Every structure is written in C-alpha cells, then in structure tokens.
Prior knowledge:
Elements lengths: L25 E6 L2 E6 L5 E5 L7 H14 L3 E5 L3 H16 L6 E5 L3 H7 L1 H6 L2 E4 L7 H18 L2 E7 L5 H12 L7 H22 L7 E6 L3 H14 L5 E2 L5 E2 H17 L5 E2 L3 E2 L8 H12 L8 E4 L10 H23 L7 E5 L5 H7 L2 E4 L9 E5 L2 E6 L4 H17 L4
Parallel strand pairs: 3-4, 3-11, 4-5, 5-6, 6-7, 7-8, 9-11, 10-12, 13-14, 14-15
Antiparallel strand pairs: 1-2, 15-16, 16-17
Helix pairs in contact: 1-2, 3-5, 6-7, 7-8, 8-9, 9-10
Amino acid sequence: MTDASFFTANDEPITPAAPAARRSLQAQVRWGSRLVTVGGDAPVRVQSMTNTDTVDVIETAIQVKELAIAGSEMVRITVNTPEAAAAVPHIRDQLDKMGIDVPLVGDFHYNGHRLLTEHPACAEALSKYRINPGNVGKGDKGDKQFAQMIEAACRYDKAVRIGVNWGSLDQELLAAMMDANSRRAVPWDAKPVMYQALIESALQSAADAQSLGLAAQQIIISCKVSGVQDLISVYQGLAARCNYPLHLGLTEAGMGTKGTVASATALAVLLQQGIGDTIRVSLTPQPGEARTQEVVVALEILQSLGLRSFNPSVTACPGCGRTTSTTFQELAKQIDDFLRAQMPVWRGKYPGVEQMKVAVMGCIVNGPGESKHADIGISLPGTGEAPAAPVFIDGAKAVTLRGDNIAAEFHALVETYIEKRYGGNA
C-alpha cells in the first residue's frame, strides 16, 4: 500500500464532533458576592433539589451543603407552606455560617403569591423563584397571583424560572388548543398539540412577566416531560422560538440505571445541538443512596460531552478473559475514589487538575497504548503475563512497578505528578 492510497483528491478531513454553540440571553443568579451566570457565554450550569422537609432548617441546610460540595451550582428547595417560607431565611443563615454561598431557588406551587408577599424575608433570602404556570391559578385570579410573584421578583431583583410540566399543564389552555386543532382542515395528532401547549404556556407566561417589568434576561424557561423523545421534540421547538436561557431535565426520570440512562440520553442529544443552559438529573434515590448521586450524573454528562471539566477522568478497561484477576478493577476504583475525594482541596491548590487523564488498564493488548494517551497511566499484567506494571507519564514509559505495593506506589506517582504539573498554577 502506497501513501497515495490513503487519501483521494476529493477527501475532506473528518471534523471532530463538538457541541454546537448556544445562543441565549444571560441571566444572573446571585447571593452576596456569589454570581452564577446562566446562558449567554456562561458554561452549562448544574442544579439539584433537596428532598428534605424545608421546615427542618438544619437537615435542609446540611443537604444543601452536601449538594453544593458535590458540584450543584444552584439548589432548589420546596416552599409550600407558611412554615416552610418562614424557615428559608434561617436555612440561608445556616449556610452562610458554614461558608456555603450557593444560591437557593424557591419552588412554588399554588400559593407562592401569598408566601412571597407575606414572608418578605423568604423572598429576599432566595436567589431565584421557580413558578409553574399550571399551578398559579385560573383566569383573572391566576393572572393576579402570577403578577404578585413577578412583582416580588422585580422588587428583590431575583431571576425567575417559568417551569412548565406536562403533569401539571394548564388544562384550559390544552383544551382550547385541542378544540382549535379539531377545526383544522387536517388536524394534528394529539401529541404535537400537547408539545405546542407546553411551549405556548411557557412563552406566554414569559411575555406576561416582561410586561410586568421583569427583564427578559432574568427569565429562564423549562418545559419538562418524562419521555426522552418527547423532551427532545419540545426543546427543539422551544429553542427555535425564543432566546431565553433554557433549563433541561427529564421530570420523574426514575431510579438507578433507568433514570441515569434516560437523562443522559435526552440531555446529551440536546446539549450537542447547543440547546440548554442549566441541567438537572431528577433521580429517585435508591434506598440508602445519597441525594448527591444526581449531581454526580449531571457532572459526568457535561464532562463526557467536553462541555466542562470537574474531576480528573479515569480510563479503565472493562475486563475480559485476559484479566481474570481483580487487581486492575480494585486499583481503578481506588484511584477514582482517591481523585474525587481530593478534588475539593485540589481544585484550589492545583488549578487545571480537573482536566488530567489517568489510565488504569488490565493487560498488554490495549494497556500500554491507552496509558501513553493518558497524562499518567499504568498497564497491569493480565492472566499469564509477567508480574510487572509499566507506568507511562506524558506518553513515555517512566517506571515499572512490581510486588505487592503497586497500588500505593502508583498513588504516590499520581500525587507527585499532580504537584509537579499543576502545583505552579495556583
């Protein structure tokens, strides 16, 4: 084969895949000196929500802290009763005392107009309000109650997410649109009408909020559904019709693998198309599972797409008949756990370390090659191979480890590498 046979005169280079550029206004969500920008040229933000009783100030503050440390840049809390509204300023105070300046988002349904009016300290302590148009009220009453909430946002200079949900979609709007559709010469199927109703509810509410004085860039929109293809369809239509920042997430995504896979699938498609400015992975925690798991999944989605970097990535092979020993599996987990545990300290001490790539491979087939492609990697011996583990640093073989302390010695090499490469960046 000659060099000429590799290419033809008409060949074009294959363009590396990358998420499309986003186009949206930029909202600002603040608490004290902490500013979280949403949309525009800001990175895609991660949001989560507590599942504690908001009235329990200490428990809620602790969970907010855990979510923030895990990587949630805004945390939503339920504000559903006068007691919950009264607790919000105390939760904020507890967080401030702990040095946690993550902005709080108040989740309002049915009575938010009254809670924001009667509890001004709650309205001030929150950094953003989530309003569901389907649960504000009907007719003139609904218009008045929606206006009260927007007026509070204007008074206290807060951002607002207008969050439409197909489980609580305005039924009067949907019925009116279904009636109008039935009179079309060729009526649409029911599902596209529902999509249109979700988008219409969000955009009409956003227009109403602007007419009441809320700046367009302080309005964030979401239209959440629980089906992957439905979410993609709705957000493609929504993105084509507005330039408000958009919050993405499957509602009621589910538990465990189902919820993780469904969320990752839907969000990845939309983010790759340049649609989405904040995300939430709405996982139902399994018994004993930390609430922070939904944040971990959201971070992994963004990092996998190359949109953001949060933790050093660990490449590890899945194992096969060549790797009957569990040594490389154990080492891969140890290294991954070690890197994640150290990141809260390393993030400030070693800027850039979150982009580091580590490889922990199990045999000679792909081990040396993958290790060379990583910043630092180790190729462990497979079944029947010589009991030696070469370590590659910046693409070159640096040392070969042997014996019973390979894991500890590789840990030390990783720490030394981080100090040498990133220690001068602070």
